[in-house]
Amino acid sequence: MTRSVLITGGNRGIGLAIAEAFAAAGDKVAITYRTGTPPPGFFPVRCDVTDTDSVNDAVEQVTSQQGPVEVMVSNAGVINDGLLLRMSDADFLRVLDTNLLGAMRLTRAVMPGMISARWGRLIYVSSMTALLGAPGQTNYASAKAGLIGFARSVARELGTRRITANVVMPGLVDTDMTKEITDQRRAQILTQTALNRAGTPEEVAAAVTFLACENASYITAALLPVTGGAGTGN
Prior knowledge:
Layout: E1 4-7, H1 13-24, E2 28-33, E3 43-46, H2 52-66, E4 71-74, H3 89-117, E5 120-125, H4 129-132, H5 138-158, E6 163-170, H6 183-191, H7 201-212, E7 223-226
Parallel strand pairs: 1-2, 1-4, 2-3, 4-5, 5-6, 6-7
């Protein structure tokens, strides 16, 4: 069955790998991007997830192009690292606005279509940092942890309508964003990782597409770690 899929931040890294995985399965895939040139092969929609009107307009465009959104993947995110002692309110709130409130805006926009269809998949890309914390990332960790509580609450609100809401929690994954990590920090993370290697965007995408499939219909409010064994016991 071909489904209408929408992925925020689907123009690179983990988001692009997720988009490619859904497209390979035969789904109609729309991706949002904020800047740059989107990759070919998908329905691209320029969208700023910090702006409610922009999010609503993006969902309307996707609905007109490929039908109501049936699978939503909230992946768009930013980092703005710094020690809390010197972090401004603006630096903290900017990360929350994109990584957490952006997911809320997107979810709210796609909910009516899913409720009407009495079926849907809501998937949120969090981070291992949500549970472990990281120096200089109080804003990022707070936002990614917030996604867990948000998804579990949405799951309870929408479960009777056959709509699931789940969270994928990547560990260290080789992307453009993680290239900014220092060698020392990378080595420290790997010592805490059972598989002693970084993951790939494709491995995260496999977890996302599983949660979106019919075989995962009894899985909701779940947190699925894709961490290579890092954070065991949390």
